[in-house]
Design a protein that fits this description.
Low-confidence stretches: 1-9, 576-581
Distance between the termini: 50 Å
Largest sheet: 6 strands, parallel
Number of helices: 24
CATH topology of the largest domain: Rossmann fold
Amino acid sequence: MSKSTSDADAEEGRRERKGAEALVEGLKQEGVDTMFGITGGAIMPVYDVLYDDEDVDHVMMGHEQGATHAAEGYNTVTGRPGVCMATSGPGATNLVTGLADADMDSRALIAIAGQVPTDMIGNDAFQETDTRGVTMPITKHNYLIKDEDDVPDTVQEAFYITSTGRPSPVVLDVPKDVSKNTTDAVRGELDVEGYSPNYEGHPRQIEKAAEKIEEAEKPLIFAGGGAVISEASPEVRELAMENDIPVTTSLMGLGVFPEDHELSLEMLGMHGTGYANRAVTECDLLVGIGVRFDDRATGKIESFAPKAEVIHVDIDPSEISKNIHANVPIVGDAKNVVGDINEAMRDRDSPDTESWLDTIDDWKQKYPNEYEQDGDDLKPQYVIEQLDELTPDDTIVCTGVGQHQMWAAQWYTYTEPRTWVTSGGLGTMGCGLPMTIGAKLGAPDQEVVCIDGDGSFLMTVQELTTAVREELDFTLVIINNYYMGMVRQWQELFHDERYAESDLPHLPRFDEIAEAFGARGWRLEDEEDVEDVLEEALEYDGPSVIDAIIDPYENVFPMVPAGSGNDEFIMGKGSQGSRIS
């Protein structure tokens, strides 16, 4: 949150400077030390200021979309707003995919776009785009700054809005003349009329939640990305461990509860574990914490948690009962609300879950995640398991989108929050490498790995230039099956093996591509080489790329077919279409 400035301090700080200087000054007042972008005509005055600035590290990306994804990665691992910047017109429109991605996954992000001079707006000037109009549906708020005197207050307000309540991107559209004109304005008292996020849950609802938990026989906690964002991991762990309540997570909630704990059911939903999907179908109380109840988690709405009362904790009131009816709705910050529920539970008995946990243990035995590395084609699950074995518990794992993303979610063990960086709601292929760059710059002392797919990697391969230039140390493993793998899987299972435009038969050797960019590359094809190659890549001080050639016909299981209920999951090809009972 921005700190307000007293009138005396404001007057003392007045000095004539360009609007671009006031903008950079505002960024530094918000604690920004790293930003990502690409220069261009309309934003050039801001870059001219950054040329002499020693406090803000600007990372020149290969594409504006990469700048937004890098800002997302930075925000995810640090909790601080990510900042990206582009010029007007195509520069601004290239930010759109990353903005939509950040909006769907509730990431705090400030996007600064250059704009044509104010007197030319609306005249279809060179590289003019209505950036506000284009980005309005996919941002929390956006500004067209028409007066250089408004720059300090607008920057302060933008950071406050993006990072409070439910995080989401905010756009600053800055005309070139506003950047060049002089101003002596300084930020004043922060006052955002009509915006007041609620952080505290209603006491009566807290008590109702505690009462429901005490009375439950088959309770289940479902924790999502909101629990990670609000730093609620300690509170979620206390609620579960003190009351013997099993925990499942959404894709974006990985790491909020340790997956090596006996109460963990790992991920729920379309590619979640069989035992998590059975548990949500049979539970009598579902405690949703910072989750959207999106379709990939719920499957068919009518059969989702059909026997359960639902407690739903979320800071965004529009999410409550949007998809799943909440019997006990609680609007507030997850950390505060779950902390209050824990406090209320100290005066109550914990639920008797012994029989429930025995049943879940039986399901864990009946529906284990399995694969077979038989010495022939290399299995992606094996590569990821070995990577898990060789890396520390606090390793940050980034992914693109596709089969490799789901295998990474299933076969790597997540024990800490803010160690999982991916695209959830929008499913943006190509996000993996630039998110890795942002994550590494945000957490330079942690091991960072990227598990990417061949198709996904090709979409942002140019960002290897950025990684080499910035001398970033991370390991990127490309799960290469020469297909758009998830599309191929659906075509196999649901489209009579009609592989329409999903094969990628003429891919380059990615290890050689890496070397051409100045990174190190390895090609991995055999099971006996996996450990050695991974160790070499992890030990290399710089960007390392492993081109792992895997079984092209390996599928992601378990799987809940689209339109099916979570209790209709497929464990493998042999169970296709069958109801699991």
